[in-house]
Amino acid sequence: NRELRLAAVDTVLSYSTAYPEDTEYIAKIKRVNRIETIYTLQQMAQELNEPRLVEETLELVAGGLGCACGLYDDVLSQVMPFLINYYCGDNIFLRAVAMEQILRITQRHAVSPSRLLSLYSASIACTLANTLDQKSPRPFVHCLQIINNSPKQFLSAHQNIIVPHLVASGNEQALRSVADMLEVRLPVLCVNLAPEVFVKIFLMDDQLMHQALMRFVRLISTGTGGSASSSASHSNSGDAGNDSQSKDQVEVNIPSLLRSCTVKLIYNLVLSLGEEDPVLRKRARSALLTVQDILGNPESDEQQGVTNIVQQSVDNLKDMTKTESPKPGKPQGQTEINVDLADFLSQHILGVMAY
Predict the structure, then answer these.
(1) Can you give 141-164 as a three-state secondary structure string?
(2) Do residues 168 and 200 lie in contact, with contact meaning Cβ atoms separated by under 8 Å?
């Protein structure tokens, strides 16, 4: 029933834009409501089994939110990738609705489509890059035509966002397309953006982190022949044959790579401590402790494999959880962790401040 769905759209938008008074307190309430709404839309879009009609409703709500908020509101930075994701999809009807809502937002804010997409190019970069695994990524090309950017210009400007996203999501075909368009070898591209990739990976769930780290070291070792960057060079490759060669390509020396980008990595993780999502803040703190453990480990870099690093991250999260809810009479645990972390950060504070 389309009328019922449209009524639902109006109801959701009324909730998200309630409180007509324009005070600072009311503005905060509106912002919270809008962010809550867009997060709900994103969750629903992932879980839907009957796509077209319900997803059209979600797009209409997203378009309404984009019209209700200000042009520079951070809610619009969530609305734009939500709509662009549908525009990049296979369903022609949903693509048309997405573009219709984008044009509706441009009319509401009296800006051109080029201006709107340029303002939020960083927000939509990863969504557009996902389409590069296709033989003919028309949405990517069309959006760049609107922005008046060449693929190389766009990817170069947002490679620090796109490459970590593609490594973490496992879209290797798109990643190779990005490297080709930037005219850079894939291992070189990955190493150059190692700090950003490590931050993305360290903020992931434990199991996904392990998979992403393994993928990252494999991508780095591609074309290097498992040379100096490989941590498996100490094995008896003469007796192991092809199995050893394959292993050499996977076990890249992560600690050495971390040491090469310590300051920038710490800087990015410190920024992540300011995330609104408490889970991400907790993982960022855990990641700092993991980096501290790796860099301060007396074992040689070659002995610290991917599995050990992930296990360190898991252990740090468990320790943090325990110290955040200490037993009666034992509140000192969190203080000890904070002191250790503060000492570690103080060693790199000048480099962090330089960024």
Answers:
(1) HHHHHHHCCCHHHHHHHHHHHHHH
(2) yes
Query: At CA 9, angle to CA 35 and CA 58, rounded to 5?
Result: 65
Number of residues written out for the chain: 355
Under DSSP, the state recorded for 273 is T
**Residue linked to tokens 């290797």:** 172
pTM of the predicted structure, to 2 decimals: 0.79
- Residue from 308, 208, 319 nearest 258 by CA: 308
d(CA 105, CA 67): 5
Distance (Å, whole) CA 181 – CA 216: 20
Dump pLDDT digits (tens) for 82-100.
999 999 988 899 999 999 9
Task: Please report, for residues 7, 19, 124, 207, 246, the alpha-carbon distance to residue 250 in angstroms, rounded to integers and kept in the order given.
Answer: 54, 56, 32, 17, 7
User: Of the given ranges (104-108, 183-187, 206-210, 246-250), which has the lowest mean pLDDT?
Assistant: 246-250
Contacts of residue 299, defined as CB under 8 A and 6 or more positions apart, other chains included, come to none
Of the candidates 76, 79, 98, the one whose C-alpha atom is nearest the C-alpha of residue 142 is: 98
Contacts of 227 (CB under 8 A, 6+ apart): none
pLDDT value of position 50: 60
Rounding to the nearest 10 degrees, give the CA dihedral for residues 322, 327, 329, 332: 0
String of DSSP letters for 17-61: T------HHHHHHHHHHHHHHHHHHHHHHHH-SSHHHHHHHHHHH
